[in-house]
Each structure stands twice: as C-alpha cells, then as structure tokens.
Design goal:
This is ESX-1 secretion-associated protein. This protein is mainly alpha-helical. It has one domain. It is 78% helix and 0% strand. It has two helices and no strands. Helix 1 packs antiparallel against helix 2. The mean pLDDT is 68.
Amino acid sequence: MEIAQTEPSQLAVPFAELVDAASAWDGARRLIDDGVVGARAADAGCCGPEVGPVLAERLARWRTEVALIGDAVAAQADALRACMTTSAAADAEVARRFG
C-alpha cells in the first residue's frame, strides 16, 4: 500500500500551527527547567527568602502552561494523523475503484 503524500495546505490542522505549538511547548519546557534550577538555588539559600515562593509560584504556573501546550500539541498531532489516515484511505479507495 502506498503512503499518501499530504501537502501542508491540505491538512485539517494548518502545519504552521503545529510547528508553532511544538516550538512554544519546547520553550515552555525550557522555562520550567530554568524555574527548577532557580527554585533549587532558592532552597539552597542562594537567594533571599522572598525569592523561593515567587519561583515556586512561577514554576507551578509554567507547569500548568506546559501541560496545556502539550495537550494542544497532542491534539494537533492527532488531527494530523487522522488527516493522513483519511487521505491514505481515500487514495486506496480511488485505486480500488479506478485502478
């Protein structure tokens, strides 16, 4: 069975949105990593006592944002897979009918 080639313009979900979401998700993950390092530094006493709670709050918010972005990326990927599956099924049906 031949795998259907789908152009980005044919996708149910615009390819640029998928790329943007993946890029945003990667950026948010890096923010969380930075937040973890900062929180550990605050816990170790490298910063003033007021910094720890601020970093903890930001870290919690970043985790929530990353989860939401991750969900959006997963939804975009599911839509892309569904589009490709539908396209492959349509190609197979055309081949079956018109050989």
